[in-house]
Design goal:
The chain is built from 10 helices and no strands. The protein has helices at residues 2-36, 47-50, 70-82, 90-96, 99-110, 131-142, 154-157, 176-188, 198-205, 208-219.
């Protein structure tokens, strides 16, 4: 019996070691693409647009990608390559990458901590309407709008917009310019990566001022330093925020807890039944 147990232990150790080596290899390959590109494929360095640490560029509208879930990042690259997400800069890059390279660069950026937001006027959390816009953005983020039939963003994107791996990206600390542009893509149909069409419907129901208020609100929130599922499962708290010695973090919606004013509002709840949500397809 001891011999069998020892053999199993050795095999388990070997498998874990092999897995770790494979992850390291992907991370190294991803770092190479991020910092130097893939010249053999005609791919420029990701850092040229997304920054040395994946912090993005607010002025140019390039998003933060450091710390986003690996599955989400890989899905976006596949969407650019396949045409379900249109972007003149990203489409040729994604098409030139192999699946192995996509996996590697997604792995690399997923392990980076989200950089702290740069101090700027856009980080105030207020749009051109000042405090009124700030309150509107906070309300839409937390509970949605019953009249518009839109649920709170936190239902899918997690408490405070911290993200819900592996499906939903973090919004907290993301650049305001990118958030507004992304919602515009959902609204126009240029982005069509959600099989349930929830995001398209939500964006169409929001006014331009609502979108600006949401973008301002989430850009003003500090990026979450919590793990969002980018490390081995044994080291990661649950998606609901459960950690040893602490109570689960509860949000406001059909996924994070009991709905406040969003339970009957229509699109935005997510979940397996809708084809999106934590058990569905990355958006």
């Amino acid at each position: 019996m001891r011999t069998v147990i020892s053999a199993i232990a050795l095999l388990s150790g070997a498998l874990l070691s092999a897995t770790g080596l494979a992850q390291d290899a992907r991370g190294n390959a991803g770092m190479q693409i991020a910092n130097s590109g893939a010249p053999q494929n005609g791919v420029p360095a990701c850092a040229s647009c997304h920054g040395a640490k994946g912090e993005g560029n607010a002025a140019s509208g390039f998003p933060r990608i450091a710390g986003q879930p690996k599955t989400y990042l890989a899905h976006q690259l596949a969407a650019y390559a396949g045409g379900s997400r249109n972007n003149a800069v990203m489409a040729p890059v994604a098409k030139a990458l192999t699946q192995q390279q996509i996996d590697a660069v997604a792995t690399y950026y997923a392990t980076l901590p989200p950089a702290a937001p740069a101090a700027s006027a856009q980080a105030s959390g207020q749009d051109d309407k000042g405090d009124k816009g700030d309150k509107r953005g906070q309300m839409l983020a937390a509970v949605g709008d019953e009249k518009l039939g839109v649920q709170g963003c936190v239902n899918c994107h997690g408490p405070g917009g911290a993200g819900e791996a592996p499906t939903y990206p973090y919004l907290a600390g993301q650049h305001k310019s990118y958030l507004a542009a992304a919602m515009g893509e959902w609204k126009s149909g240029a982005r069509n990566t959600d099989p349930s069409m929830q995001m398209n419907m939500i964006a169409k129901r929001l006014s331009d001022s609502d979108i600006a208020a949401l973008a301002a609100y989430f850009s003003s929130q500090p990026p979450s330093q919590l793990d969002r599922g980018n490390t081995p499962a044994a080291a990661v708290p649950s998606a609901q925020g459960t950690q040893a010695g602490t109570a689960p973090v509860r949000g406001t919606g059909s996924e994070q807890g009991a709905a406040t004013s969003g339970g009957s509002q229509g699109p935005g709840g997510g979940g397996a039944a809708s084809g999106s949500g934590p058990s569905g397809t990355p958006k």
